[in-house]
Specification:
291 residues, mainly beta, Jelly Rolls, 3 domains, 3 helices, 20 strands, 9% helix, binds calcium ion
Length: 291
């Protein structure tokens, strides 16, 4: 009898081409595996893919041969259904992925002398909350100021023959703005688009972009920038700033507020000015990836 049962199983296995049904004895001819929600029409259940944390997912020893593997990554508030494409885990859900979206864009055309502080972005993505451009406490707007630009004077720290980055930080000679992802959105900062800086002859010659994710500890982005010699309205064109390689600025959620700032130094007089200057289109644009 045992022998007969074994033979039957082998025959069944062979004839069914390894079809498996769960909650059904009659899986679809097209399905290798059919999972039925109910066996009795009364009690129902769902299909549960493996659920893992991001750390557990990274412990799965996937290779290029594992293309198509599915997991549900539990990582609130950004849990995701993901598939291994052979080289990376790609998100299937949520689907609202947007690459290189404008998170914030400022327009200085029409802004009168120096502009307000904070100065709101003209365009803000609905996925983020933006804190407007804000002058550091050491800066002033005592001179006439130029129209169609946003900035300050008072960059020179009186009493110090050598003006440095550290001195400007200590004396609040910087401008800042903040980016906070809205709840349920995952934000990765990618780039600050090319922009233009205008300065006067005694304004700061040099500056550097910095970021902070706690509002206190700031880190340099790249190296100091020499703003350029043009002190008239055309100003000095500046290259884009790449943020995509900064791990701390990727995959941000609503619990993190990013502060970006430009610290300037090298001014030679208190009346020296520095502005984010008008160009065609928006004048300061921050882009990022959203999901
Ligand atoms: Ca403009």
């Amino acid at each position: 009898m045992k022998f007969f049962v074994l033979i039957s199983c082998l025959l069944f296995t062979y004839s069914s081409v390894a079809q498996v049904g769960i909650n059904t004895t009659n899986p679809s001819p097209a399905a290798v595996l059919e999972v039925n929600s109910s066996s009795n029409g009364t009690d129902f259940g769902g299909f549960m893919p493996p659920r893992v944390t991001p750390t557990e997912r990274d412990a799965i020893p996937v290779t290029t041969a594992d293309e198509g593997m599915l997991v549900y990554v539990i990582n609130p508030p950004n849990s995701q259904l993901q598939i291994w494409d052979g080289s990376a885990w790609q998100t299937l859900f949520p689907q609202n992925i947007e690459f290189s979206a404008v998170l914030a864009a400022w327009e200085v055309l029409g802004v009168p002398a120096f502009g307000p502080s904070p100065f709101d972005a003209a365009t803000t993505s609905p996925s983020v909350t933006i804190g407007g451009l804000t002058r550091g406490g050491g800066l002033t707007t005592s001179g006439g100021g130029s129209n169609d630009s946003w900035g300050a004077d008072g960059w020179f720290v009186v009493g110090f023959p050598t003006q440095t980055q550290a001195l400007s930080v200590t004396n609040n000679r910087f401008v800042t703005f903040t980016i906070t992802p809205n709840f349920g959105v995952n934000v990765s900062l990618t780039t600050i688009e090319p922009y233009n800086i205008r300065r006067s002859g005694t304004g700061p010659t040099t500056g550097i972009w910095q970021y902070s994710i706690n509002g206190t500890d700031f880190f340099d982005i790249g190296t100091p920038i020499i703003w350029g010699p043009v002190t008239t309205a055309p100003g000095n064109d500046q290259s884009a700033i790449d943020l995509s390689g900064i791990a701390a600025l990727q995959n941000l959620t609503s619990t993190t507020t990013v502060t970006l700032r430009i610290v300037n130094w090298g001014a030679t007089g208190a009346g020296g000015t520095w502005y984010i200057n008008n160009i065609n289109g928006n004048d300061l644009i921050v882009k990022g990836n959203l999901r």
